[in-house]
Amino acid sequence: MLDGIQKSAPELTQTGPMLVTHWGLSGPVVLRLSAWGARELYQDKYQAKLVVDFIPDIHIEDVKRILFQHKDQHAKNKVNNAFPKEFGLVKRFWGFLLEQESLDGDMHWATVPKSHLNAMALRLKQWMFEVVGKGQFKDEFVTAGGVPLSE
């Protein structure tokens, strides 16, 4: 979901495959969002907020329940080594999530505070990213406009 482009601009929402790269987010869903918001992004100098739901098929209350159950079932395991497979996340992304929550991957599940579990659930469902410009190579794959069909 691309938000905050202009107050008069509609909120843009897309669902689909997304790539998490070393320099940002990419993939079909990001390209579609940038296509639908091309004019607004240009007008706002490519400054916006992007809200990502990394597990759209799981309701936030279920995400919380899974995290709390996982904590109970894996209390003696390190959080970096044992994480809920239901989310379909890779270990490297899980490590990034822990880092963003200021959690040490070597801590045991038993010591993870409830507030962090709730924050992790919210982040997985509504992770806010700042759009601060074009991609690394400053390429534009999406254009707005074109040649009139009458010509």
Automatic annotation (TrEMBL):
It comes from Aegilops tauschii subsp. strangulata (Goatgrass). PANTHER family: OS12G0638800 PROTEIN. It holds the Pfam family HI0933_like_1st. Residues 8-142 form the RsdA/BaiN/AoA(So)-like insert domain. This is RsdA/BaiN/AoA(So)-like insert domain-containing protein. InterPro entries: BaiN-like, RsdA/BaiN/AoA(So)-like_dom. The lineage of its organism: Eukaryota, Viridiplantae, Streptophyta, Embryophyta, Tracheophyta.
